Amino acid sequence: MTMRTTGPLFAIAIGLILLGVISYVVSEASSMTALIPALFGMVLLSCALVARNPGARIAAIAVAAVFSLLGCAASLWRALPGLDFGAISVAKASQLLMAILLLAALVSCVIELRRK
């Protein structure tokens, strides 16, 4: 397994980790829930590392796909109700960015699973 095949998952995982840390810092460390994107990023990063092993590739990418789907659905579930584009909070922005990144991870996983 080359880095090329798991590269998008690595990049998305790093993006989620950065999103979580930045959200936590911007919200002045008022809530540990700001680190939720970072936790999803660490799971995806772990899956990307495991996927480099040819024997565990399909299982690791499938786990990453499931986490991506659940995380995307959960973050949209929290972000969309009461969304006001005029004044968006740090929490809502973080949830929307997390949903976008996890949707990209899900698409990347599906493409990788379909690859022979």
Give the averaged pLDDT, no decimals. 87
Distance between the termini: 12 Å
Say how many strands there are.
0
Helical content (DSSP H or I, runs of 4+): over 70%
* Sheet with the most strands, sense and barrel status: none
The secondary-structure class comes to mainly alpha
The gross shape turns out to be elongated
Domain count: the total is: 1
Quaternary organisation of the protein chains = single chain
| Helix segment tally | 4
The percentage of residues in β strands lies in: under 5%
Cα Rg: 15 Å
User: Low-confidence runs (pLDDT<50, min 5 residues)?
Assistant: none
Which H/E pattern describes the elements? HHHH
Key structural traits:
single chain; mainly alpha; 4 helices; elongated
Structure commentary:
The protein has 116 residues and is mainly alpha-helical. It has one domain. It has helices at residues 3-26, 36-50, 57-79, 90-114. The model has no long low-confidence stretch (mean pLDDT 87).
Give the topology.
Blueprint: H1 3-26, H2 36-50, H3 57-79, H4 90-114
Short summary:
75% of the residues lie in helices and 0% in strands. It has 116 residues and is an all-alpha fold.
